[in-house]
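Recall from the previous chapter that SMILES is a line notation for molecules. Here it describes fe (ii) ion.
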Amino acid sequence: MASQTDVSPITNTLAQRFTATRRLSLDLVATLSDADASAQSMPDASPAKWHLAHTTWFFETFVQRDHVPGYRLFDDRYAYLFNSYYEAEGPRHARPQRGLLTRPSLDDIRIWRAHVDTAVQTALPDLPPAALTLVELGIQHEQQHQELLLTDIKHLFAQNPLGPAVWQNEIASEVAQYSAMKWIEGNAGIAAVGHGGDGFAFDCEGPRHDTLVAPHALASRPVSNGEWQQFVADGGYHTPSLWLSDGWTWVQAEGIDAPAYWDGDRHFTLSGWQAIDPAAPVTHISFFEADAFASWAGARLPTEFEWEAAAAPLDTASGQQLDSAGPVQPAAAADDADLQQMFGSVWEWTGSAYRPYPGFRAAPGAVGEYNGKFMSGQFVLRGGSCATPRGHLRASYRNFFYPHQRWQFTGVRLAKDI
Ligand SMILES: [Fe+2]
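With both inputs in hand, we obtain:
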């Protein structure tokens, strides 16, 4: 049996990151009651308690059950409750009814988490490489759920006329005025894109391959709230010529006339109702809205490879990202770089369909269901948001949502042909 001092530096780093990630999830729910953490506001969103439980199920199933001889499940019934979408793991509780799970309690889930945390930490020094890969995947998976937990609790609290706040602090932009948007000429020609080399990446980020990028320019920063207010005032939501057909149908069917959470000059945030900051990036817009705004502005959405070619030399840990439990809302850029807020602040819709790269193969087994089976009808978003845990992002990172969805911190950076 290896002792704690025998742990290799690499494994030790993994252990530290495991512990820190598991702790942050608990910190994010520290101010929530059991009722807050159990309610579900819509089928797309999950209760905070469910996120805490599902991420625990992931480690218990794919690390402890599959790689630690003799491990006994904490509760045999939990797999049915907290498997999300893994067909290979059997039947599961219906997603739209996760909010009906008033039992197990939030405290019960905390106890389960502590049990699995101890088990993984104990097992780590002796885990084979294949299992260490799954611990890494479990950490990355939990980071994704931390962002979802925040956007889901925001959506839940927005339904409450009391307008509750997760954190009371008011969020102020670092600058009073947004910088003038500039056009930055992009890298054109054959570009190598996708993840290659060492380090973690999700399977959908590879294989690395060459692609042709046409001459283009990217906006120096995401579209601001103030610019979006001009779009609204100009009748953008009532001008069918600006919209894709599916988008126009959606706007009319849903009665959409502003980004989600807007009410006049206020919007709902994780710190309750706040005045809209004209300088901050607009957020909670759908792909349809992003595309219509680009049409109104005489521009278009960037392709995911235009974005990646520009982001490749930049610091992935830069910008406004999640460091700890506290107020989360995109703010105006404080820097004067040519390309601002590429990482963090708001996810940027691209015009690229979420489809496999040439040569893509999903991993064998249940974890092969992680990304590949969702490559239908969704669009790629790049760059992360203010709710993405710092350290989680890469230039090759591909997020994806359906074109009508907007409860994530989604925004838009314009592009144009030159
Ligand atoms: Fe998940």
